Amino acid sequence: MDIVELADRLWRGEASTAQHHPVVFTSELVEVTDGVAFLPAFANCTALRTEDGLVMVDTGSPLSAHAVHTQIRAWSRSPLHTAIFSHGHIDHVFGVGAFDEENEAAQRQRVRVLAHEHLPARFERYVLTAGYNEVVNRRQFGVDNLIWPREYRFPDETYRDEHHVEVGGLALQLRHEKGETDDATVTWIPQRGVLCTGDLFIWSSPNAGNPQKVQRYPAEWAAALRRMAELNAEMLLPGHGLPVIGPARVAQALVETAEYLESLVAQTLALMNAGARLSEILETVRAPAHLADRAFLQPVYDEPEFIVHNIWRLYGGWWDGNPASLKPAPERVLAAEVAALAGGARRLAARAEELAGEGTDEALRVAGHLIELAWLDSPGDAGVAGARAAIFAQRANLASSTMAKGVFNWAARESTGSRF
Predict the structure, then answer these.
(1) Quick one: pLDDT band at residue 1, thresholds 50, 70, 90?
(2) Do 243 and 345 belong to one domain?
């Protein structure tokens, strides 16, 4: 598959990110410009030739590391001199080992790993919360046997704001930004006109609202995108998805993604400042209509509703403004009370099925509440469990984002006794 041609087709709307999902897209390595290789490997990797060896921006996941090494070696036999971690998510940082082993066998210095100074703390947190991360990522991606790593290759060198590096005559400009993470590094290679954004651009509605992960920073993210647009890059190599080629397209992708985030932040803050509850804000805020058709902003991974949740959490805390939810009853106690009022869990389940049959988004949301109450009251009732499985499977089928599909499919599996 010619990924440059596919990238052009996606931009023109002749293909869609629903068909070529940016977060799971893989393909063969391609040299996108002289001395610069791009490898879509779930999380993308970029490799650059220099006189002193290769430089890589991101190195692959625990599952893709071997394939990444194999493809890089098919492209170049030069040793890996420097690896830059765009951020600390595990799909970007687990490919250094094989190159370290090569260097050790040849009695060369091991790979120099560069990252932002916040990244080591992320790795430490991942060790602390390994069980939780195992659970939520199994749920998010539907991978029942996913094992969260407990050991990490920490960087050899960190920086705070900006870091200028030269390797074998190639100058690289690193800049810290906040967006999806607090440890993001943007890599700009002016001699090649290449901009490596990491996950600050992923051919999707930005991952600024992931419901199971830690805080994101959408306002700072938008500012980072606008700073990147000022570089006038000729090529954008993203953390996920395909290259964006040509200065005009790169600028449009960055500026319009910034505008998208800025709009969600502004709308949410305006309602927060007016005293609105979270539920009212979720019902009101919408992504900018004039950007709705942009191929690189479709809600295939994250979605605007979840971004609003994260904006609320960032500026307003965890309470949603509903006095009943400040110190709520245990879920099963509330479920028992509602089921009793309704005439039993099966009555609740029957009404949930009726609403699901209507097929509208509003009806399905209410059906989700009712069937969850019925199941919490009577989890051993096969009829209730079957209805729950069917309703959440229906919701998963209709959802656009990986986030929503993952949670709804997990609930459907859990209903039949298979949580993971």
Answers:
(1) low
(2) no
**335 and 256 in a common domain:** no
For residue range 138-193, what is the model confidence (pLDDT) as tens digits? Answer: 999 999 899 999 999 999 999 999 999 999 999 999 999 999 999 999 999 999 99
* CATH number for position 176: 3.60.15.30
CATH assignment at residue 366: 1.25.40.880
Q: Which residues contact 168 (CB under 8 A, 6 or more apart)?
A: 50, 51, 52, 53, 81
Residue at 285 is within a domain: no
For residues 251 and 355, state if they share a domain. no
47 vs 167: CA distance, rounded Å:
13
Tell me the CA distances in angstroms from 401 to 199, 204, 225, one per residue in order.
16, 9, 22
Q: Is 59 helix (H, G, I), strand (E, B) or coil?
A: coil
Structural domain that includes position 369: 329-415
For residues 287-295, average pLDDT: 97
Residue 24: inside a domain, yes or no? yes
Q: Please, what's the largest Cα pairwise distance for the chain?
A: 76
Co-location of 338 and 248 in the same domain: no
Q: Are 25 and 40 in contact (CB under 8 A)?
A: yes
Among candidate residues 396, 349, 355, the one with its CA nearest the CA of residue 375: 349
177, 55: one domain: yes
Q: Are residues 230 and 335 in the same domain?
A: no
Helices marked H in 184-246 — which ranges?
Answer: 218-229
Q: Is residue 281 in some structural domain?
A: no
- 27 φ, ψ to 5°? -160, -175
Task: Note whether 190 and 333 are same-domain residues.
Answer: no
Percent of the chain with pLDDT over 70: 99
| Helices and strands (H and E) in the chain: how many | 15, 13
- Cβ-Cβ contacts under 8 Å for 349 (sequence gap 6 or more): 370, 371, 374, 375, 381, 383, 384, 387, 388
Amino acid 98: pLDDT: 97
Residues recorded for the chain: 420
The rounded distance, in Å, linking the Cα atoms of 212 and 403 is 9
Instruction: Report the share of the chain in percent with pLDDT over 90.
Output: 96
- For residue 230, the tally of other CB atoms under 10 A from its CB is 10
**Residue 158 parent element (H or E):** strand 157-159
- The answer to the question of residue 342 being in a domain is yes
Q: What order do you get walking across the sheet with 184-189 strand by strand? A: 162-167, 170-177, 184-189, 194-198, 235-238, 244-245
Count of domains observed in the chain:
2
Backbone torsions φ then ψ of 46, nearest 5 degrees: -120, 135
